[in-house]
Amino acid sequence: LTSLPRPALHEATAPSLSLSQRPRRNRKADWSRRLVRESVLTVDDLIWPIFLTEGASGREAVSSMPGVDRLTIIEAVREAERAAALKIPALALFPNTDPALRDPMGSESLNSRNLVCRAVREIKKAVPEIGIITDVALDPYTSHGHDGVMDGDRILNDETVALLIRQALIQAEAGADIIAPSDMMDGRVGAIRMALDEAGFQDVQIMAYAAKYASAFYGPFRDAIGTSATLVGDKRTYQMDPGNSDEALREVALDLEEGADMIMVKPGLPYLDIVQRVKETFAVPTFAYQVSGEYAMIQAAAANGWLDGEKAMMESLLAFKRAGADGILTYFAPRVAEKLRA
Ligand code: PBG
Q: Can you point out the beta strands (E) in the chain?
């Protein structure tokens, strides 16, 4: 038997498989892929977290977050103007407090002239159209780097909430549009809501860090706000166990009952299953935080030429939308906004 001559590919007249469904048909051209795309990322999905530092002017690089700087208030106002021009809806502010002002109680958090409050006032004055989110938690202000006050090695819940209420009030007075408790104390959302209402801040929104995990991915953030070196122990008695998912639903349910207007899941990419469950279960505005370590991983791999940083950035953010997130806090926000505009 001699082998049969093989037909050249171009001579093939009929497909060799008889398939009624060929999913590749919808992918054959860019116009068709765009037409059938289910999720898209737009600038309206972005919240830009920025770091603040004292000083008359200038900025300081955060070494574990290439491309991210701590900004003096003057620079923060300039960046807020840029963000508004790019149509980024909101900024989230995080202070690197002067170490001399940190103490075990986090007293500087209650100073209405602290770095965050001054920045809120200046940004609101210059760029009233951008939303300002302020973080409620004690960690940028405590000498031990925890989000609450301590008794020995215990983080005290109710004593901490009493301080968080006052912190939220001075932030609202400074002009914050959204108060974002990131401390994970029990009952803080309800307590803050009540205090805001009593003080006449009915329109100030609450974005609760509802499902916030005790994560290794926060490392570079702690460098940025200056708590890495001082943090004593870990945050596992208040932040959630990475093995849990049902517990995230209970946390979200509580924060909504207590008055949260929107909720957040954090970290982001390793917790997309939580984003999806939360969105499907509660159908409320759901945000995800692409945290500092996620940003650093993409930047580091890109700097080494190990992956295409820009493509990885866009794909990672689109994945949040596909999982059901209504928006994403991301350090890539200005870069993405520039790219989406181009
Ligand atoms: C603390 C807070 C953290 C982040 C936001 N608020 C860190 C922590 O819990 O230690 C992390 C954000 C990031 O990693 O980008 N209140």
A: 46-52, 59-61, 69-71, 90-95, 131-136, 150-151, 154-155, 178-181, 205-212, 262-266, 286-290, 327-330
Instruction: Specify the residue with its C-alpha closest to ligand 1, atom 11.
Output: 218
The CATH architecture annotation of domain 44-341 reads Alpha-Beta Barrel (3.20)
Q: Tens digits of per-residue pLDDT, 108-139?
A: 999 999 999 999 999 999 999 999 999 999 99
Q: What is the C-alpha separation between 291 and 161, in angstroms, rounded?
A: 24
Catalytic residue among 87, 125, 235, 266: 266
Ligand 1 centroid to residue 199 C-alpha, Å: 28
Structure ipTM: 0.98
Among candidate residues 291, 328, 318, the one with its CA nearest the CA of residue 45: 328
Domain borders along the chain are: 44-341
51: DSSP letter: E
3-class DSSP state for residue 322? helix
**Cα(276)–Cα(211) distance, integer angstroms:** 12
The single-letter DSSP state of residue 4 is: P
For ligand 1, atom 14, which residue shows the shortest CA distance?
A: 218
Tens of pLDDT along 171-188? 999 999 999 999 999 999
